Amino acid sequence: MPAITRKSRTGHQQLIDVLGRHIVSGGYPVGAALPVEDRLAAQLDVSRGALREAVKALAAKGMLTTRPRTGTRVLPPEQWNHLDEDVLSWQQECEPRQLLRETGQLRRIVEPEAARLAAEHRSVDHLAVLRAALADMEEAEARGDSAAYVEADTTFHRTLLAAGGNRLLGSLGRAIDVALRHHFAISTQTPGAIAASLPGHRAVLDAVAAGRGADAAAAGPRLIPPAGRGGGGAPGLPAP
């Protein structure tokens, strides 16, 4: 494990990143104890106080537990907060295919109902953002700018989740921002995928704007790569 460099961005966050990535990648297996505090602090070239704060942060994410006689141990992934931005980022780096698959599964569960709710409760402001996002997607496709497309597509889907008036769905959209960007960035690598996705987005927007909840819910799955093909959104799938 690399030592922490003093000239980095926030030292506290970098230390959390180093430990978090090491846990997600399996460097510290589930149930394993981290090295004793003095040894680990020396390995990372940080103070014991800084290490304790990083351990507390990871414990708050459900990744570590600290007890007096057993030390600091890695908890199973089932206990991690998988909606935490840091955890999602580490999974994107260390477990990209699993994150891709699970994001696709989550979208298939949530987005059709989110589209229905959006058709029933969307505001004028929500519609304005959705229309602007779709226009940006179309412009990005025309000039072959996949990065701009991913940015606009993420805005579209986050707004769709927020437009239904369910605060939990709105928070979910913000929480999984990293996962959505990862999902869209991978699926847009397939030639023609961006152009193929635009009619589905237009169909959802038209149904939401017209207040047709059933039509919006029916169109929602068109935005999501089919299950069981390439890990739920891997390259080769047509719908970002």
Short description:
With 240 residues, the chain is mainly alpha-helical. It has helices at residues 11-24, 37-44, 48-60, 85-94, 96-121, 124-142, 146-162, 167-175, 177-187, 193-210, 213-219; strands spanning 64-67, 71-74.
Walkthrough of the structure:
By secondary structure, this protein is mostly helical. The chain contains 11 helices and 2 strands; from the N terminus they run αααββαααααααα. A two-stranded antiparallel ribbon has the order 1-2. Helix 7 packs across helix 9 (177-187). The longest helix has 26 residues, at 96-121. The chain is elongated.
Helices and strands in order:
Blueprint: H1 11-24, H2 37-44, H3 48-60, E1 64-67, E2 71-74, H4 85-94, H5 96-121, H6 124-142, H7 146-162, H8 167-175, H9 177-187, H10 193-210, H11 213-219
Antiparallel strand pairs: 1-2
Helix pairs in contact: 1-3, 1-4, 2-3, 4-5, 4-9, 5-7, 5-9, 5-10, 5-11, 6-7, 6-10, 7-8, 7-9, 10-11
Q: What is the mean pLDDT?
A: 88
Low-pLDDT segments, ≥5 res? 2-8, 228-240
What class would the helix/strand composition place it in? mainly alpha
- How is the main sheet built? 2 strands, antiparallel
The number of helical segments is 11
Looking at this protein, list some descriptive labels.
single chain; mainly alpha; 240 residues
